[in-house]
Specification:
single chain, about 350 residues, mainly alpha, Arc Repressor Mutant, subunit A, 3 domains, 15 helices, elongated
Length: about 350
């Protein structure tokens, strides 16, 4: 069978990104192998013979025929009499879009989805993909509606929100990003538009709270993801900015604040049921009073021990400070005693 190629505006015939992006994950393995084999024959100026393809690719005649049909149905090549015309790379995306839209229409015609859901899918397809949404997007939307339980409005808000963020940050990988955000929403039980609004309010409050801590600490670097998670945990636990101010303004208490040190103090507040700035103030006042009392008690104990030691020294000194009368009495006693020191006459004087 003679091979012809459609004029390619690129001026060369290679495996294009369009084929990889639009067909590589859709076609069967035999169809991909046959496509590459046909490209090789074309580049070498050889004609295409199915028998040679079967031998080279190690497939049967039926498998070769099915692969050819798959390539033709996908719009990658067309049959013209005894010739195969391989479509230009520049037209492959259009062919994939036509195929995907046809598949999307078939899926939307299923009886398992409400008209409201179908309208949202159509709106997303038109607004975000210029009418060329691929099946993988449909499968993601189906997952959001079925497994995650998102309402149709929530699914639309999901795409709008992700698109706006991506335009601001200039990031790539839109599909993976939308899929990840959807997964996070599901984990946070965000399934209705009201849930989305509440989540956004929490996010704004968290940013302001983290910014407050950053300003108070005067950090010269951004918080790490772990530090930010700890700080947001304080907010979720009900630790107010007023409560943190009591601690962070007391620079005599902690010379160098770190998130771990602050977290240790916060855990003490939560364990003690503290809920306001006044509670924290009273807590530290009581703590200071207790430590002052302990210090004074220790000082008194030390003084008492010193006094007892001085009293003992006075007692021993008194024992050794004998006066003159004592020595006269001692001489008189020795004169009246025997050599063994026993009293004369066997009785005391």
């Amino acid at each position: 069978m003679k091979l012809l190629k459609e004029r390619d505006n690129n001026g060369f015939f290679t495996v294009s990104n369009a084929f990889v992006d639009s067909f590589l994950g859709v076609l069967s393995g035999n169809a991909v192998k046959l496509f590459l084999y046909i490209k090789k024959c074309l580049n070498e100026g050889n004609e295409f013979y199915p028998s040679d393809a079967c031998s080279s690719l190690r497939i049967t005649g039926d498998e070769c025929g099915s692969a050819l049909e798959e390539l033709e149905l996908g719009g990658i090549l067309v049959t013209d009499g005894d010739s195969l015309i391989l479509k230009a790379d520049s037209t492959l995306r259009d062919a994939a879009a036509d195929r995907d839209n046809a598949g999307l229409k078939r899926k939307l015609s299923d009886n398992g989805w409400s008209n409201e859901f179908k309208e949202v899918v159509t709106s997303i397809n038109d607004e975000f993909f210029a009418g060329r949404m691929s099946p993988k997007w449909y499968d993601l939307i189906k997952k959001c509606a079925g497994e995650y339980g998102f309402s149709p409005e929530t699914i639309y808000i999901l795409f709008v929100s992700c698109k706006n963020i991506r335009e601001k940050t200039g990031g790539t990988g839109f599909y993976n990003y939308v899929a990840k955000v959807a997964e996070n929403w599901y984990a946070e039980k965000v399934v209705t538009p009201e849930d989305v609004d509440a989540r956004e309010k929490r996010a704004v409050a968290a940013r302001e709270y983290v910014g407050f801590v950053m300003k108070k600490l005067n950090f010269k670097r951004p918080f790490t993801a772990q530090e930010q998670s700890v700080i947001e945990g304080w907010l979720r636990s009900g630790v107010t900015e007023e409560m943190l101010t009591v601690l962070l303004d007391d620079t005599n208490r902690v010379k160098a604040f770190t998130i771990s040190r602050i977290d240790s103090e916060v855990n003490k507040w939560l364990a003690g049921g503290l809920r306001t700035g006044d509670d924290v103030t009273k807590y530290y006042e009581a703590l200071r009073a207790e430590r002052t009392a302990e210090r004074r008690s220790g000082q008194k104990e030390a003084q008492s021990g010193a006094d007892r030691k001085n009293d003992n020294r006075g007692h021993f000194k008194g024992e050794r400070d004998y006066d003159e009368d004592f020595f006269k009495w001692l001489e008189s006693r020795d004169a009246k005693s025997g050599t063994d020191g026993a009293p004369i006459g066997g009785k005391n004087d």
